[in-house]
Design goal:
alpha/beta, 8-stranded mixed sheet, Aspartate Aminotransferase, domain 2, Aspartate Aminotransferase, domain 1, 4-stranded antiparallel sheet, 2 domains, globular, binds pyridoxal-5'-phosphate, single chain, 432 residues, 14 helices
């Protein structure tokens, strides 16, 4: 090439949740039986959608209009339905004009960061869901700016650090909240969320709240949506069908703009998002037609409650297996379907191993472990020795050393087996 092709920011795109799949598949080709604990796709983990949901989709698939483009902002009746749902909370009030559809939240996230000026930064949580942190870092051509979620304080945000970083970095224009959170499975108290909004108010920032797991709570938790506590601060809630229906293959998500009228710069940002989608034409049509029929069906709440109870039961089972391992900092989860489990300081080193009998697998694992951080080393040995595929926490933009698991295994016996094996592997690894 006569000139370099890649932008500086392109190296910031990292997604270990899928990167590890390449390694696991290679080991699978050497005969390893892999248990996938890496990806948050309930369908992949055999969650069965109820027949009434499939009937709605099948019926729409018979209708010709499902195959056409739709309005760039999204189907009006669907946006009206969503606005009505949001307004019911009694917080900030919106209209269909404040809603913009995307091809999944992944699309919403990358479009939002692309449109921000390169010097304007969003501060987000660490550990961070990689789609946000990578897109933010890529737009700014440098590393993400983060505030710490504290594993020794229920994974709640370190508000003092957040405020200090905002105060001393005038380039920060917005705060990202992920609630319930991926990768920690934590749900934040209203008080914490209100304090974040207070910081936004003081420093004239906007707030983005990723609420893709908003309806996925259990163990008595209640998840507050941005609309309920944002008051008069400009903000964007990001929501979608992927996890709550669950229907990740729909590639259907949307943004809700709050308080556009309160700040002209923020209003221009929302207009630019509308225009960016217009240039792309529109987002997926059929899932938008299905949305009010599924979420508005009286059976939806029972369906979601059942799924949540099952996730809650798995969370409790995992607590009982891993909660007492002395080398770990373990927090019970309350929302979403992940848990990030951290090794206490000084537990890991770079000579620990697990026995691997297959010489080809052993050789690969040893090769991958050269020069990596200590949680990657654990993850590779765990994979090679047991077939359990988890994601290292340090890949979520964090200095912590640990691993993320999912709470999605439908078969209780299998769940028990996998987590007992994981616990035994941890014990053996840290003592090796
Ligand atoms: C916090 C969070 N936001 C967004 C997404 C992406 O959602 P979508 O399937 O709508 O692109 C995920 C997917 O795992 C997620 O965990």
């Amino acid at each position: 090439m006569r000139k370099k092709l890649l932008s500086e920011g392109s190296k910031e795109f990292k997604y270990e949740i899928r990167e590890i799949v390449k390694k696991a598949n290679l080991l699978k080709s050497f005969g390893l039986s892999v248990h996938w604990e890496n990806i948050g796709d309930p369908i992949e983990k055999k969650c069965q959608l109820p027949v009434w949901v499939k009937d709605i989709v099948a019926d729409l698939a018979q209708q010709n209009r499902s195959y056409g483009y739709c309005p760039s902002k999204g189907i009006l009746a669907t946006r009206e339905f969503i606005a009505e749902q949001t307004n019911k909370s009694g917080g900030v009030q919106i209209t269909a004009e404040d809603i913009l559809f995307f091809n999944g939240m992944g699309d919403a996230i990358s479009t939002a960061y692309q449109l921000l000026d390169a010097t304007s930064r969003l501060i987000g949580p660490s550990p961070a869901y990689s789609t946000h942190s990578s897109a933010e870092a890529a737009h700014a051509n440098t590393e993400p700016i983060t505030y710490r979620l504290n594993p020794s304080n229920h994974w709640y945000p370190d508000l003092e650090e957040l405020e200090n970083k905002v105060k001393y970095n005038p380039n920060i224009v917005g705060i990202l909240i992920i609630n319930p959170d991926n990768p920690t499975g934590m749900v934040y108290p209203l008080e914490t969320l209100k304090k974040i909004v207070a910081i936004a108010r003081e420093y004239k920032l906007f707030v983005i709240s990723d609420e893709i797991y908003n309806k996925i709570v259990y163990n008595g938790a209640r998840s507050y949506a941005l609309a309920e506590y944002i008051e008069d601060i400009p903000g964007i809630a990001m929501k979608g069908l992927s996890k709550e229906v669950p229907w990740p293959g729909s590639r259907c998500g949307w943004m809700e703009f709050y308080n556009r009228d309160k700040d002209p710069e923020f209003n221009s940002f929302c207009n630019a998002l509308d225009n960016a989608k217009m240039v792309e034409v529109c987002s997926t049509t059929l899932p938008q037609l299905a949305l009010p029929l599924i979420l508005g069906d009286p059976r939806f709440e029972t369906h979601r409650t059942n799924l949540n109870e099952r996730i809650g039961k798995r969370s409790a089972l995992i607590n009982s297996i891993l909660g007492e391992v002395p080398e770990l900092t373990f927090n019970p989860t309350f929302g979403a379907f992940y848990n990030s489990i951290i090794f206490k300081d000084g537990v890991l080193n770079n000579s620990q191993t697990l026995p691997i009998s297959n010489p080809k697998i052993k050789e690969k694992v040893e090769e991958w472990c050269r020069g990596v951080s200590s949680d990657y080393r654990f993850v590779y040995y765990l994979l090679g020795a047991t077939g359990i595929c988890v994601v290292p926490v340090s890949s979520f933009c964090s200095d912590l050393q640990g691993f993320r698991i999912t709470l999605l295994e439908e078969d209780e016996e299998e769940l028990r087996k996998v987590f007992n094996t994981l616990r035994d592997a941890i014990k053996e690894y840290v003592r090796s």
